[in-house]
Amino acid sequence: MNLLKLFICFFIFILTLHSNCQEDFSFDSLVNSIEKMPYNEAFIAIMDLPYDKYAGNLIVSEKLFTKALTMARKTEDSVKVGEVYARLAIINYLRGNYDQSVDYNQKAIELFLNHDKTVKAGYVYCEMGYQMKRRNMSLAFYYMRKGLYLLENADSIPNMSAPYDNYGVLLEMKNCYDSALIFYNKALAIKEKTVDSIGIPFSLNNIAQTYMLQKKYSSAKDYLDRAFTIRKIRNDIFGIIENYSLYGDYFLQQDKISEAIKFYQLGLEKAKVSGYLYVWQYISNKLSICYEKTGNYPLALKFHRENQQIRDSIINSETNDKIARLEVQFRTIEKEKELERKAKEVAILNQVKVQQELKLSNRNMVIFGISGLSVILILLFLLLFQRFRQKHQLKMNNALLMEKERGIKAVIEAEEEERNRIARELHDGVGQQMSGLKLAWQNFNNRFLKDEKEAITESERLFALLDNSSTELRSISHQMMPKALKEVGLQAAISDMLNASFRNTTSEIRLDIFGIETRYEKNIEIAIFRVCQELTSNIIKYANASNIDIQLYQSKGNLILSVEDDGAGFDMNKRKDGIGLTNIKSRVESAGGTFFIESEPSRGTRATIRIPV
Question: DSSP secondary structure string, 13-72?
């Protein structure tokens, strides 16, 4: 195995020595010669820039790829436009322009999916998840897993190295070091097989960082040195900056402050020239820590201020709000497109069925034409009779369906009315009696049992039991018909219900409600509330989910409820609808709506309810 690694490193060394001059020449000369090239040649020259070259000078690279975007738009090739968007997203992320990066990623994904480029879309999803890691870890894992799912289903192994690396970073940030090392080594194996001299150092450094976190410094140093050697041979400016900062971390963790400062200073000089703001901020913060440890407080204060100034320029409240809005809009558009896609699939299946029936009818007509006149008359008579029976049967079926719907609606209305009646009876009857009994017991306790210690203790125990019973009674009354649903509306009722349901769980709940500016009919609000209540109850009982996303919004004349979790899921082919799902279907259909549910084992469940309003 060691011999194989030596051979790979030697091969990379020879390869990069041969290609380094060409790459440096093409990058340096491209800025000056771009205006003289034909559009196609100029576009290809820009897009062929390796990652280490365009990441090494972000300011110049952004200008080049902005020109490439203009060229791609003139060709009206949407896939090329998407490819440029993806590069601009990376550049803006490295420069700290996070809102612009999110916008470019979303545009690239939309173009790729519109043209069935699932591999390209999967790669951008993974990149977007990686870029979200310091702002929203749950969204980072959501986008990363979505991208990995697309790439693995497309069997796109050569495109998996960078996503595996980035997924390892997310796992490392969650302190799952062993899992992170598995994905880092997967990525490294792919890169060594394809002799990817740009990508290999990234995997080596990722493994080194994990070993540093585990305090395995000897192993970490070996991987750092291997990565740095390759990057020096390639003259990879971006990679060299990263390695300088990692060497600084390596020595700082071992309290070798002078060595750490030396490497941080080397990285800081190059980061300032390249415009790599995030590393600039990171190294300034580390230098502030180093100088504080040595007692050089003026320099510690200088670098602390520099770190604060860069951080404030990268992220502010307005940028965060914009990113959050873009993310919500993007996820909403995704869900709408998925619903539209399913509706189109149903329409296509219906159209195919109609065409098949039409073909069968035409074939029968040819057979009928060959037959004699007497046979034709008999068949026509049978056909008319059959149509009469079908119409009659259709009328009967429609009547039965309407009667069934009326029955379901009546049952639901009766059930809600009975819930209201029982809630009122509990609150106004038994509840009032228990409250009166509690006050009487308290008065008795205060007046007669002050000197009897044992009697007081027993009285207090009974009083506590009575108080708990009264509280439980009020809780049952509220669950049967929430007060907030009557007085304030659907949004407050759902929020109260979720707070009460998940108070004692470790699940993370995300509730987004937008586009709702009015109250709806009583039966619609009750149906949405009860469905949300049933779905969240199922998640608590069976899903063992860590994250639950709930969205309620109005779109195109429909009130839409989406409930999604990352729990255990189930096999749709083996699904048997229980009482809960049957009740959900009945409530939604009684309100004139539709109900979709999707799930896979270990991949969670998503339910979507759409009711016309």
Answer: HHHHHHHHHHHHHHHHHHHHHGGGS-HHHHHHHHHT--HHHHTT-HHHHHHHHHHHHHHH
